[in-house]
Model the fold of this input.
Amino acid sequence: MATAQLDAVFGALSDPTRRAILTRLTRGEATVSELAAPFRVSQPAISRHLKVLERAGLISRTRRATARLSHLRAEPLREATVWLAEYRAFWEESYERLDELLASLQGSKTDRPGRSRR
Done:
């Protein structure tokens, strides 16, 4: 995934309203008014959120008669997850090294003669 695309995806995901919109779209397409219903914001504000999501490639929008429908496009989320997975592996390795260090420190603490364990 290109850096600009990844930046756009994480920028879009940084807002709780946009994340909620994506969650709603997992159940199927929706109009702006349907997406705006659970929020205390105007339809134009929701439309601005939708434009951010669309620029990030997370949704597509089509027209049906007079309705403008939004559809989830999950591919950029998968690509962002792949990018994040590299850091998950890093942290898992770090935790494993920390576990090994703690185990060796605890082992050396119990191996000292003349000391009792508490």
